Amino acid sequence: MIGGFGGAGGQPTRLMLALRDLGVGDLTIIGNVAGISKTTGYGWPDHLDPIDQGMFFESGQATKITCSFPVPGTTNPLSDIEKAWREGNAEVDIVPQGTLIERIRAAGAGIPAFYTPTGVGTPVAEGKEHRDFDGRTYLMEEALSADFALIRAQKADTRGNLQYIGTSRAFNPAMATAAAVTIVEVDEIVEPGGIDPERVGTLSTYVDRIVVREAGDPLP
Amino acid sequence: MIGGFGGAGGQPTRLMLALRDLGVGDLTIIGNVAGISKTTGYGWPDHLDPIDQGMFFESGQATKITCSFPVPGTTNPLSDIEKAWREGNAEVDIVPQGTLIERIRAAGAGIPAFYTPTGVGTPVAEGKEHRDFDGRTYLMEEALSADFALIRAQKADTRGNLQYIGTSRAFNPAMATAAAVTIVEVDEIVEPGGIDPERVGTLSTYVDRIVVREAGDPLP
Amino acid sequence: MTTLSNDPAPRLDRAAIAKRAARDLVDGSTVNLGIGIPAMCADFLPDGVELLYHAENGILGFKELSAPGEGDPNLMDAGGKFPKLVPGMAFFDSVESFSLIRGGHIDVTVLGALQVSRNGDLSNWMIPKRGIGSIGGAMDLAANAKKVIIAMEHNVRGDLAKIVDECTFPLTARACVDEVITDIAVIEIDRKNDRVILRETAPGWSFDDVQARTEARLVADGDVGSMA
Amino acid sequence: MTTLSNDPAPRLDRAAIAKRAARDLVDGSTVNLGIGIPAMCADFLPDGVELLYHAENGILGFKELSAPGEGDPNLMDAGGKFPKLVPGMAFFDSVESFSLIRGGHIDVTVLGALQVSRNGDLSNWMIPKRGIGSIGGAMDLAANAKKVIIAMEHNVRGDLAKIVDECTFPLTARACVDEVITDIAVIEIDRKNDRVILRETAPGWSFDDVQARTEARLVADGDVGSMA
Hints:
Helices cover 20% and strands 25% of the residues of chain A. Chain A is α/β, with parallel strands linked by helices. In chain C, the strands form 3 sheets. In chain C, strands 4-3-2-1-5-8-12-13-14-15 form a 10-stranded mixed β-sheet. A 3-stranded mixed β-sheet of chain C has the order 7-6-11, with no helix packed on it. A two-stranded antiparallel ribbon of chain C has the order 9-10. At the A-C interface, α5 and α6 of A face α3 and α4 of C.
C-alpha cells in the first residue's frame, strides 16, 4: 500500500524512491489516484518534476495495481501504468474510491466485509454478492489488507504517534491500520508531548518504522 | 441518540434536562454506558450530583433503550433503568459497545450492514446471520440511525463545525452523522476560523442546531 | 444514433454551461464539483449564494482556487489544484470523506458525462475501446449524492448524441441523474414519471433542434425557457 | 459444581492477584485493563516495563490515575475514573477506539470473570438470575485482543468453582481466554492441545488443593511453580 491521495502532498515519495532502488520485484501496489502525475502534473506544483507510482511499472517491479484512478483522461502520452497494461505486463484492478478506502479501513477495523450502494449496476458489480436492505440494492465488498504500508505524515513522536497536515491525510491513516508492517516517512520526529494529544492522526500502535527526511529535502 | 460515553464529559446534559422538561413521551433512547451515574457516581467528580439517561425512565418518557452498559455491577440501589425494566416498563436492548458504535457509524456512512467477530457464540448472536470469512465466523449487524441526535462538543463555529476536547468525543461524532436532526450543546460559539481546520471533529454538514451553554453554567 | 450538423445558432461555450449550472446550486448546500466544466461552476455563483465545497481528498469549505501549479501540496483539491486556506475549512481523511458521500450527505454533485440515458443512467468513466479507465470518486458521488447534475457538451464528434435511450458505455451508476445542462439545453430527467423534460434551450434553438441532436425522446412540461 | 472450604493456606488478596497478573504484561504492549482487579495491575508493573494503556472511551497512552472523584470530566478512563494528562497520549472517538480493538491491535486485555470454561469460554457480563447485565467493551475485547488474561478470585460464595467444564452463565466470547490468574493459582488455557495447565499455586497450596476447587480437570506441564 502506498499512501496519500495522488499528487505530491501525503505521498511517501522518499520511501517510494527507496523501494524502487531496492529493486525488489513481483510487487502488488494498492493506491488511489495512481501514476498520472508524471504525464499530467496532477497534484504537483509546476516547478517540480512529478514522481508517482508509475515508476514501479516502468522499472518492471510491479505486476498489479489496485486503485481508483490509474489513467488520466487523455491518452497522449500514455502513463507508465497504461503502457504496462497495454503491453500485457500489468493487471489493473479499478475500484471506486469510496469502496477502496472503506475496504482498507475494514481490514484495519476487524470487519471482513460490508455492503455498499456504490457500483450497483456497473462493471464493478460483476461477480459480487448483491443484497437488498430496505428496498435498495447493495454490493458486498471485502476487506483489503497488505504486507506493507508506506505512508507519509508531517511528524511522528518517538512512540510512533503521527500528525498529518492539510489534505495530506487522505489514504494514509487507514492504510496505517491495514498492513502487517507500517513504515512512515516524516519531516520531523519529536519527543512524546511534541504532538498535541488532540491532533494525533494515527495511533502509535499502528506504526512499525519511522523514516525521517533529511533537513532541507527539496521534495514536497 | 444521546452522545458521550457515560459520565459527565461529553454528555449533552443541558439538552437532556430540556428534553425531560419538554415532557414528550414514548422515547426510544440510544446511548452507551447509560443510566448508571446516578447510583454509582460513574464518570462524575465527587462534588457534583450525577445526571444520567435514567431520568427518562424515572419520568416515564422512555420505553426502550439500546445501549451497551445499562446497569451497574451491583444491584443496590437499583438504577432507574433496571427499576423500569423489572417493572416491565422498559425494553432494554444490550449491544456490545464496538458493535453499537460501528452500527451508528454505518448508518451515517451509507453502509446498511457489516460483519463483526464480536458476539459470536453469545446471546447477542441469537437470530443473526452467521457467515464465515477465511475460516472465522462473523455476525451480520445492521446500521442504527435515529430521528434526533443530542450531542455535546466543546465549541462550534457559526457554520456548524465542531471541536471536541479530551475523552469527550466518544459516541458524539458518529451520532452526529446518523440522525435526521443533530442538535449540539456547546460551551462556546465562534466565527469561522475560530476552530483550527486540523481540529474539526464533526463537519458542519452534520449539524442542524447549536445550543450554547450560559456563561458560568455549573454543570460539567 | 442521431448525427446532424447545421446548427441553427451558436452553442454555449464551456464557461456558459458552467454559469447556467451554477444557477441551480442552492445557497448553503454541500456541493462536490467534478473536474472540467463542473469545476468552473465555482466562478459563476449568483450573488448571495455560498456553498460548502467538498473535495474527495478531504476538505470541506474551501473556496478560491489558486492559479494551477502554485500553492501548497498539502492543500490540494481532488482535481489536483491548490485552493487557498479559508476560515471555517475542515480537513479530514478519505474514510470520513467517503462516509460523507456514501452516507448521502452531499446535497449536489455536478459531474461530466460521456452518456446519460433517458432513465438517468450515467456513463462517465471509460470509453470501451480504450479498455481502461478511471473511476475515482465518480461512482460514489453519482450513486449517493442527493442531486446529480450533469454539465457537458450536448454532442460529441459532430452531432453524435450523448443523451441516449440506453448507455452503450460502461455505467457509473444507474438511475442517478436529475438534470443535464449542455451547450444547447437544460434537460430534467423525471425518473419518477419516466420522462425526459426539455426545460430550456440555448438562444436560437427550438425544441425540434434539440430533439434532433438527442436520442432520448424529449417532452415539454409547460413552456420551454431560454438559457440566456 | 465443586464446593469445598478448609483452605490449606491463605489466599492472595486482590492486590496480590493484580501484582501477579502485572508480571505477565510485556514491555511496550498495548494493553486494556478491565475494571476491578484488572485495573489494579497498573499499580504493580515491574521495573522497566512501560505499557501503552488503551481505554474504550478513547485514550491511548495514559498512565497515572488521579484519586477517584477528582479531575477533569473530559479526561476520563473507561472505568469512569480520571487519569492525568501524560506526554504522548492520544484522544480519539469510539469508532476509532473499537476499530483498534476489533481489528486485533490490542496486545493484551486483563478482564474479570464470572466463569471460565476448560476451552477458554468466558462469562463475565450477566448473572442469569438477575436477567439484565452490561456488556460494555467486554465482548469486543475478549473476542479480539491478541491475548486475554483473566484476573479474578478462584471461587465464589464459599468454594463454588468459577473455572468450569462448561459455562452456565451467558457467554462473553467463546474460546478466548489464554491465562487465568486467581488468588490461589496461575492457570494456562492451552486451547490448541485442549489442556488446562496449572502453572503456579499460591504458597501453601498443592496441585490437589487447587484441583479440588476447580471443576475443569487440571494438568501439570513440567514443574508447578509458586506465585510468591
